[in-house]
């Protein structure tokens, strides 16, 4: 169970009191917000995991593991949490960072091609440079 904790400070004449307010985010469902400072890059195809595994700082093979993202009576719904990763030069110098995530697809259980689709949430100011680097 995921819980969100918020600390609020209340001030009065005798001092500052603190209390924790807990809100269950599990009831909120998926949420999205369009941010002008961010952009999304889509990676798709059967070699997506292999391609990114050799370029990024984190182990992206967990996105290729077989799991059901569709709630069924026999198998619970599972989603892989987003991953923070960085793209480095061959010498190990930092180039770009982004959040990598795998969207849930309702038709995933019917897809036998082995194709994987991943999204990268990147800063819009480096988007063109990142795309040029990935094309090399």
TrEMBL record:
Any one Gene Ontology cellular component term annotated for this protein: mitochondrial matrix
GO biological process entries: iron-sulfur cluster assembly
Q: Which domain of life is it from?
A: Eukaryota
InterPro entries, per database record:
TrmE/GcvT-like, YgfZ/GcvT
Kindly provide the name given to this protein in its UniProt entry: Aminomethyltransferase folate-binding domain-containing protein
Biological source species: Brassica oleracea var. oleracea
**Organism phylogeny:** Eukaryota, Viridiplantae, Streptophyta, Embryophyta, Tracheophyta
């Amino acid at each position: 169970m995921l819980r969100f904790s918020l600390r609020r400070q209340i001030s009065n004449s005798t001092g500052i009191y603190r209390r924790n307010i807990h809100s269950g985010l599990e009831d909120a469902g998926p949420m999205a917000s369009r941010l002008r400072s961010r952009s999304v890059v889509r990676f798709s195809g059967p070699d997506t995991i292999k391609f990114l595994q050799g370029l990024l700082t984190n182990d992206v093979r967990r996105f290729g593991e077989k799991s059901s993202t569709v709630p069924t009576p026999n198998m619970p719904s599972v989603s892989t949490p987003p991953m923070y990763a960085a793209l480095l030069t061959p010498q190990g110098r930092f180039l770009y960072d982004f959040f990598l995530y795998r969207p849930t697809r309702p038709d995933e259980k019917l897809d036998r091609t082995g194709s994987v689709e991943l999204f990268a949430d990147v800063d819009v100011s480096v988007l063109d440079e990142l795309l040029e680097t990935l094309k090399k």
